[in-house]
Design goal:
five-stranded antiparallel β-sheet; 110 residues
Length: 110
């Protein structure tokens, strides 16, 4: 929880100042296992505003738990985008020598 709070604060500072995130901030990429673009919403479980393709780099600027599910407010290319289902992000703390499992998205239904 402490790492999450530090990561969120550092990411928010990076977005607000326009400077790259500090070494404690998480570098995240969209990793939707369904193979479809990830919905970006106005609020957790809110209306869809846009989508992000798998592999898109994002910064988490806020997090919430709603109905037992974790949601992340993300920014990409220096601008706030909205809320995404956090389980569909692959995040690693800069300087962390461990590597997350590779993403293996499912093929979209035919």
């Amino acid at each position: 929880m402490l790492v999450s709070a530090i990561r969120t604060a550092a990411a928010l500072a990076a977005v607000l100042t326009g400077h790259p995130a500090s070494a404690l901030a998480a570098g995240c990429v969209v990793a939707d296992p369904t193979g479809t673009p990830l919905n970006v919403r106005s609020a957790p479980q809110g209306p869809v505003l846009s989508t992000l393709d798998n592999g898109t780099a994002v910064v988490v600027v806020d997090e919430r738990v709603l109905g037992g599910k974790r949601w992340a407010k993300v920014a990409a290319d220096g601008e706030a985008r909205g809320w995404v289902f956090a389980s569909y992000l692959d995040c690693a703390i800069a300087g962390d020598k461990t590597k997350s499992a590779p993403m293996h998205p499912r093929s979209p239904p035919q």
